[in-house]
């Protein structure tokens, strides 16, 4: 189903982002996909096999140079859907983390995301047309002991998405926040969290998570928390004191060797 519309998906080499790109391909979008490592070309090859036009960009979206590199490849083409999904986690106690790693996490999850949304979003507002999907997380609803910086970045994104959506309410540009719970991707290994209850727990299928996010974006919804238990958890997060939530998070995210 060709639509001649363009979707830009970041973090599309694996996990939720790759599955979001597959959803966009099935929806008939041409794709610009981006990730930091050469594996983005392998993802592009698999997506092209679905009879989809794909441009792949290898760029570090934790840097302004990386964001600009992606924007150059997009060029003057109007972006119909922006799926700002690239992100990383970082486990362990904050004071035990390498500060450069923590800073890069903020640069990628927050600064790189809003820089891209700012540039692409202005074009959408001018044309009065577009869909933005931001991958936040249910992690944004609770203080993330032993993953403190990550949960802070996701609290930012969950909050930012809702605010931007409100600012654009008189336009035909929609902003949707995808808020998954633990999902079976490379995320926990990359965050050095395999030795935690989160790391060892049963997780959602990234294809299911992505499909729910894509459908919510296409329906112009404000957001979607994927999975029944995650919906229950986020509902309770509004009632349970933050001190208790922080302790609950510690039990899930503290490395087993230290708990
Ligand atoms: N898995 C979960 O439990 C979970 C739950 C809630 C929310 N999320 C969110 O879902 C999103 C996708 O994560 P995932 O679970 O699918 O993990 P993933 O498989 O590790 O995917 C992360 C993607 O982001 C890309 N990326 C990482 N650093 C980058 C950088 N500096 N510049 C450009 N791209 C970069 C990765 O590409 P490279 O390999 O090239 O770096 C990869 O394509 C993230 O925002 C994450 O916070 C995940």
UniProtKB/TrEMBL annotation:
Domain Ketoreductase: residue ranges: 5-185
* Regions annotated as coiled coil: none
Q: Which domain of life is it from?
A: Bacteria
Give the UniProt keywords, A-Z: Oxidoreductase
The family database entries (InterPro entries) matched by this protein are listed as: KR_dom, NAD(P)-bd_dom_sf, Sc_DH/Rdtase_CS, SDR_fam
Q: State the family named in the UniProt similarity comment for this chain.
A: Belongs to the short-chain dehydrogenases/reductases (SDR) family.
Query: Per its UniProt record, what PANTHER family does this chain match?
Result: DEHYDROGENASE/REDUCTASE SDR FAMILY MEMBER 7B, SHORT-CHAIN DEHYDROGENASE-RELATED
Give the protein name, as stated in the record: SDR family NAD(P)-dependent oxidoreductase
- Species annotation: Phyllobacterium phragmitis
Top-level taxonomy: Bacteria, Pseudomonadati, Pseudomonadota, Alphaproteobacteria, Hyphomicrobiales
